[in-house]
Amino acid sequence: MKTILEKALGRQRVLVKENERAVALYKGEIQAVLMPGEHWLANRRGNLEISRHDLKNPEFVSAYEKALFDKLPDVAARHFTVVRTGRMEVAVVERDGALHSVPSPDRKLVLWADAGPWKVTTVDTAADLAIDPALMRRLGQARKTEHMFLHPVVDGQVGLLFVDGVLVRTLEAGVHAFWNVGRMVQVKVVDIKRQSLDVAGQEVLTRDRVTIRVNIAAEYRVVDPVQAVSTVKDFSEALYRALQYAFRKTLGALTLD
């Protein structure tokens, strides 16, 4: 309830706490951003409106945001940190040294400056999709992985990185992370260790028309992962068929003796 003094003077006492900021409107128009302390503001006929914001939530979400930036640009510049991302950009936002958020492309984020300090790093994913290993670990620890594609490549393997279906480069052993915004990222792993391939129970007709049943075992190793993946759909199946054809052709030219 208003005090007698407030009614007589046509003013209202507004108390803003240390953990708060307030936006004052009079007759529907933005007047100021109020800092902590006691404020006496004009309030004739109840035309004063106070919008309070708790700094515990550092993001400024308000129906008056545009009006505040349009009518009081200097005030807005003092009180807010604005984060903007482009069509192929993400931002890494840190609050007092701790990871706060990772805004996606085409996003605007308005933060209370006094809730910081803030550090904003903008990343152009069109230039490079790879995420620095140190940042990758921080994103994982902070559970901010919604824009990250993670893929491990173990020893004895090579990873083939495809972006939008196009082979970009090969990946050595290790854990690799990429931004998965606006583009489709895939990693195909190829084993380059020595492997065995068994072709069992093949019936072959020799040159002297005798049917024999043959088992064959082969060892192979992929020396060109790119060629192995791009030339055939399944290189292990193609090798299996090639072995079948090779020993059928060889044994078919021999007699049983």
What would your notes on this structure say?
The protein is α+β, with helices and mostly antiparallel strands and 257 residues long. The chain folds into 4 domains: 1-54; 58-124, no CATH class; 144-191; 195-252, no CATH class. 21% of the residues lie in helices and 44% in strands. The chain has helices spanning 4-9, 65-71, 73-79, 133-141, 225-231, 235-252, and strands at residues 11-16, 20-26, 29-34, 37-42, 48-54, 80-84, 89-95, 98-101, 108-112, 118-124, 148-153, 157-163, 166-171, 174-179, 185-191, 195-205, 211-220. The protein has a 3-stranded antiparallel sheet, covered by helices on one side. The radius of gyration is 34 Å and the shape is rod-shaped. The model has no long low-confidence stretch (mean pLDDT 88).
- The number of helices is 6
Category by helix and strand content:
alpha+beta
3D shape: rod-shaped
In N-to-C order, the SSE pattern is: HEEEEEHHEEEEEHEEEEEEEHH
DSSP strand tally: 17
**Can you list the strand order of the major beta sheet?**
3-2-5
| Rg over CA atoms | 34 Å
Unreliable segments (pLDDT under 50, ≥5 consecutive)?
A: none
Task: Give the integer mean of the pLDDT values.
Answer: 88
SS strand fraction? 35-45%
Amount of helix: 10-25%
First and last CA, distance = 114 Å
Biggest pleated sheet: 3 strands, antiparallel
Q: Return the domain count.
A: 4
